[in-house]
Design a protein that fits this description.
The structure is a single chain. The protein is an alpha/beta fold and 347 residues long. Helix content is 41%, strand content 12%. It has 15 helices and 12 strands. The strands form 2 sheets. It has a 9-stranded mixed β-sheet, with helices on both faces. Strands 10-12-11 form a 3-stranded antiparallel β-sheet. Helix 11 links the parallel strand 8 and strand 9.
Length: 347
């Protein structure tokens, strides 16, 4: 393209009709590039040129391996620098991964659950996406590594930087066993805003989001809101109501988030992941869930048009812990919709 139009600068401002159609790419890639530049306006073209000439591992807009959903973000990444298993990119492009997020200062219970989630998802064949931050992020990635899985770390720093510094060994292991991703080129200074902006990438690469524990002001809550906007399944682990570190995540339970009591419940709902060692072909998270068991007809009848969890417990004489997984199964099957205040409505 640069040779046909004279320069990268000319290509950036040229109308689509002037672009040659590259073999194997077609008009779809050109349309993606056009959406990208309209969102960004002026872009650092010199940076792109350096990446291409340097032959580094980097995905640029229009690259066939780049997850297409990233181009739909309000602020798509200018480039994705990566290290590790490139074979994971097809999974991320199909959103066949689970993002686990939470606070940097969790309780012992939160750390234990996060690590158990990482192990369980790894055993089921699901890539685990997180931010390699202190606390919940690190715990779920450690669990994924122990379980022999493929962790995906989305960094708020360049690949060469380690933050926090004592995560050097962990970051190296994630890069060796899974995938490290950053939108920041080498030499970019560390800024607080970079850690917040990576939330959009974590959610965009996943097909489901799990919030383990977080306070009322947290990047994990931002990730939860992004998951809702994108209509992704959102699970929340309930925690001690008196803990400041869990007030934000507990409040999500009063909205439309699904209760996650133990990792096995999540794995049972997701089924085998794209990396599962099984002859059965893995299915993306967006695939329709199986029809609910006939026994849940009673739950649907009790639900009527709309009911709260408290009302359902009273009608069916069953505890909330028994009904929550069944309501989640109905939600995944597309038969009910969760609403704020622990209410469900039939679709």
């Amino acid at each position: 393209i640069r040779d046909s139009l004279g320069s990268l600068e000319a290509a950036w401002h040229a109308p689509l009709r002037d672009f040659p159609v590259l073999p194997g790419r077609g008009r779809q890639a050109l349309a993606q590039f056009d959406r990208f530049r309209r969102r960004w306006g002026e872009a650092p073209l010199e940076h792109w040129a350096q990446q291409v000439q340097g032959g580094r591992r980097v995905l640029l807009p229009g690259d066939g391996a780049s997850p297409p959903q990233l181009a739909e973000l309000e602020r798509p990444p200018l480039a994705l620098h990566w290290r590790g298993y490139g074979s994971l990119w097809p999974c991320l492009a199909r959103r066949q991964a689970v993002a686990v997020v939470g606070t940097r200062r969790p309780s012992r219970h939160g750390l234990a659950i996060a690590e158990a989630l990482g192990r369980a998802l790894a055993a089921a064949g699901w890539p685990v996406v997180s931010g390699l931050a202190e606390g919940i992020d690190a715990a779920c990635h450690r669990g994924c590594l122990v379980g022999g899985g493929r962790p995906v770390g989305v960094l708020g720093t360049p690949l060469e930087r380690v933050y926090p510094r004592h995560h050097g060994a962990l970051q190296r292991q994630v890069g060796e066993q899974g995938l490290l991703i950053s939108e920041h080129p080498a030499g970019t200074p560390v800024r607080a805003g970079h850690f917040a902006s990576r939330n959009r990438l974590q959610v965009a690469l996943a097909g489901a989001v799990v919030v383990v524990e977080c306070p009322e002001r947290s990047g994990a809550l931002h990730s939860a809101r992004l998951a809702w906007r994108q209509q992704l399944p959102l699970w929340v682990v309930p925690a001690d109501a008196t803990r400041v570190s869990a007030r934000g995540s507990n409040r999500l339970l009063g909205a439309s988030a699904s209760v996650l009591l133990e990792p096995a419940d999540l794995v049972n709902q997701l089924g085998p992941g794209p990396l599962a060692r099984s002859v059965r072909a893995p299915q993306p998270l967006a695939s329709p869930a199986p029809e609910p068991a006939a026994a849940d007809g009673a739950l649907l009848r009790a639900l009527g048009e709309r009911a709260s969890l408290e009302e359902l417990c009273a009608q069916l004489q069953e505890p909330a812990g028994s009904l929550a997984p069944r309501l989640l199964a109905l939600e995944l099957a597309g038969l009910v919709r969760a609403e704020p205040g622990l209410h469900w409505r039939r679709i």
